[in-house]
Amino acid sequence: MKIVHLSDSHLGWRDLHHTDAEGHNLREQDVYDAFAQAVDRVLELEPAVAIHSGDLFEGYHPFSAALGVALDQVERLRAAGIDFAVIAGNHETPRVRAIAHPFSLLERFGVHAVHGEPRRLRFGDLAVTAVPHSNDPEAMAGWITAAEPDADARFNVLVAHAGLEGLARVGAGEPGAVELPGELLEQVASFDYIALGHLHQLDRPRVNAVYPGSLERLNWGDQARRKGIVEVDLDAEPLDDAFLTVHEIEGRPRTRLPALDASKVDDLTKAISRLAKTKGLEGAIVKVPIANVSFEKYGAIDRRRIGEAFAHCLHLELEPEFVEAGSGRPQPAAPAELRDFLSRRVPAGVEAEVFVGRGETYMTRAAEDIGA
Amino acid sequence: MAARTLEPTAAAQALLRDFEGRYDVGEAPPVPVERIASALLGLFVDEADDIRTLPGAPADQGRLSGMLDAEEMIVWVDRGEARRSPGRRRFTIAHEVGHFVLHVPVVHKLFPDRAVDIKEIDEGSSAAKLSKHRGREREANIFASELLMPEPLVRAQATATGFNLPALAKRFEVSVPAMRLRLRLLKLLPPLA
Known about the structure:
The structure holds two protein chains of two kinds. By secondary structure, chain A is α/β, with parallel strands linked by helices. Chain A has two domains: 2-249, Metallo-dependent phosphatases (Purple Acid Phosphatase, chain A, domain 2, 4-Layer Sandwich); 254-371, no CATH class. Chain A has helices spanning 26-45, 64-79, 103-108, 137-146, 184-187, 268-275, 295-299, 303-309, 335-343, 352-369, and strands at residues 2-6, 49-52, 83-87, 112-114, 119-123, 126-131, 155-161, 163-164, 179-180, 193-197, 203-206, 209-211, 227-233, 244-249, 254-256, 260-261, 285-293, 315-322. Chain A has a six-stranded mixed β-sheet with strand order 4-3-2-1-13-14. Chain A has a six-stranded mixed β-sheet with strand order 5-6-7-10-12-11, covered by helices on one side. In chain A, strands 15, 16, 17 and 18 form a four-stranded parallel β-sheet that branches. In chain A, helix 3 (103-108) links the parallel strand 3 (83-87) and strand 4. In chain A, helix 1 runs parallel beside helix 2. Chain B has one domain. Helix content of chain B is 48%, strand content 11%. In chain B, helix 1 runs parallel beside helix 5, helix 4 (86-103) packs across helix 5 and helix 7 packs across helix 8 (176-185). At the A-B interface, strand 11 of A face helix 3 and helix 7 of B.
């Protein structure tokens, strides 16, 4: 039996200011295109079920365009006789109960959309234990720990949307995100496959557990070499090559060019413009790091000229590293300095050590996120 | 103590065998690297807010993650880094122990190490092809990896946990990237991982 696993489509996500002739945000369209491509692949592969492990939508108030894309693509699957099951991720889960979950709308259109609490779905020989995101990490860990394979089913799949401690933080660390200890996977090891969502890079934290990653690169932290969906052959042994196959989908290229050392060039505008001839930049989002640059030299860059040189790219971003003291990328504060700073700002009624500890944790995360 | 050898993998294995023989410890992760440093080698592990301010430490090489002072028999570890990542702290200690076993007293008495020197995921060229400095750093990294993640123990635990990367990293008290590389080098990493 074959299933397909996809995740983190983030329909409705928007970025940058580039629009098409009708005013649609181009990056938003990229995300819709990636999801349509993923569904194209699913239709080619003809699995029994397509499982989406969360963050179908970017937010819990999805744009009508995002809802339309979701319903249109799900309809293509339904017309082909392929079931589609999706669990709620942290992005589409409202923080307050009074707000209706967007998945309640999907359910009315026949989608197996699991939100609020875990549910078991049956698709012939396959039982899917679906654990949606909860804003209460302990509840979610409890749901996962309590999950047990259906003894009557030939195959059992567990679906959950959470990070795992120690893994890459790409896609994690947002408000409401849940990070669980890796040992939790040992308690559900008897499932044939564990379909995970939340991390944006393809990863296999356990032999039978996979994050397919997001369908599109949403930020510079996502260094994934490829994007795609995962085909799982449940008849194969987990260590067999046939167990997992990644089917790539094409996203918009995101290219960080080698750093330009400004101290070694006289005409910075010319040097940057020359980089536009690098192969593979058509339609790409491009970043040019510029090392050892002074404020004066950076300010003198002719933006119009480099804009023309990179006109074949979607977006150009310069990343200066200034030579002047105290400038450039923010650096994490030295530990003693940070503790001192925080300990002088402890709010009333809050335990100092807790406050300082939390501040240090956030600084560490921020430093990791910017690669400091 | 076992005879000193300049082959980092064999040296780490010999050190571990020596420790296990003397102290009758069970073969279960995590490897008690600090105890090995202190009980077996007589090294004292200490932390500093900024290692560059210590006597003899270079002030012009950027922030230091760790430093071996072989004369005073002290392994210095950056306090902030240690607090942020206990796994990184252990790797730094194992790296400095590597310098002590492999390179003292042949080369120097002081080994200041920047973050770029102590690589938990050092998979570059072979040490022989690198400059002397980088070659020594790579040897210390190989030594640290072997000491903290001994092959037989990693093999056994990897099989027992279904190659569960975060769980293995936690058991061995190393970072996930360090464990991932170890499994890859031992050809134990399933595809896609």
